Hints:
Blueprint: H1 6-14, H2 16-24, H3 31-41, E1 53-57, H4 63-74, E2 85-90, E3 103-107, H5 113-120, E4 126-131, H6 142-156, E5 161-172, H7 175-184, E6 188-194, E7 205-213
Parallel strand pairs: 1-2, 1-4, 2-3, 4-5
Antiparallel strand pairs: 5-7, 6-7
Amino acid sequence: MAKKGKTWIKGQLNEKYYKMSKRDGFRARAAYKLIQIDAKYNIFKVKGKYPKKVLDLGAAPGAWIEVILRKYLEIPEAKRYRNFKIIGIDLTTIRPFENAPFIETHRIDIFSEKCEKEIIQPEKLFDIILSDLAPKTSGDFRDIANQEAMVEKVFEFTKYLKKHGHIVVKMFQSEFTNEIMKKWKPHFRILKRMKPPASRESSRELYIVGLNFI
Ligand SMILES: C[S@@+](CC[C@H](N)C(=O)[O-])C[C@H]1O[C@@H](n2cnc3c(N)ncnc32)[C@H](O)[C@@H]1O
C-alpha cells in the first residue's frame, strides 16, 4: 500500500468526523457511518425488539462495537438482557472493552474454517450481521477480487441470520454492486444501498443494508 504523506495525515487530523470521534470518545471515525445508517434504517430494532445477538465482521479497532454498546446502554431493560452478545471478528487484535463481558472478540480470518466452525456456527443465529470488512489494498486487480470475495463470504454467513434479521455490508461501487443487489433482493423485505455522509466522498465505498431477512 502506498505510504501516506504528511499532507494526507494533516488533512486527516483536521477532518470533521475524525475530530468528532476524538470529542465523542470513539476508537475510529467509522462509528459515524454506523450511526448514520441506523438513523436512516433503524437497524437496532428487529421485529420491534432490540437485538440480542450481533456479529461484527472486520470489527477492529472496535468503533462499531462502541456504537452498539452505547445503544445497548440506552435500553432501559438492558440489565435484564441476560443473553445479549456481540461477537467482533478481525485479523487484528481488538482492544478489550471494560465492564462488558457480553462482548467477545476474536483475532481470526473470516475465511478460515475455524472462524465459521468454532466461532460463528456454535452461536446458531444472529439478529444482526454487520460487515465493515476492508481487504488490505495492493493497488492492482486483486483488490477488486478480494473485496468481492469478502462480500460473497458475508452473504454465505446469512445462513446464521435470524428470520427478520438485518445485515449491513460494506462494499465498493462497481458493476458487482448491481449483481449483489439482484442476488440479495429476494432474501430481504427491504434492500438498499447507502453512502453515509461520514464515508469519504472520494471513496467508492458504500453500504448494502438488508432489512427483514426472509
Ligand atoms: C475499516 S476497518 C473496520 C472498522 C470497524 N468497523 C470499526 O468500527 O472500528 C476494516 C477491518 O477489516 C479487517 N479485515 C480485513 N480482512 C479481514 C479478514 N479476512 N478477516 C477478518 N478481518 C479482516 C481489517 O483488519 C480491518 O480492521
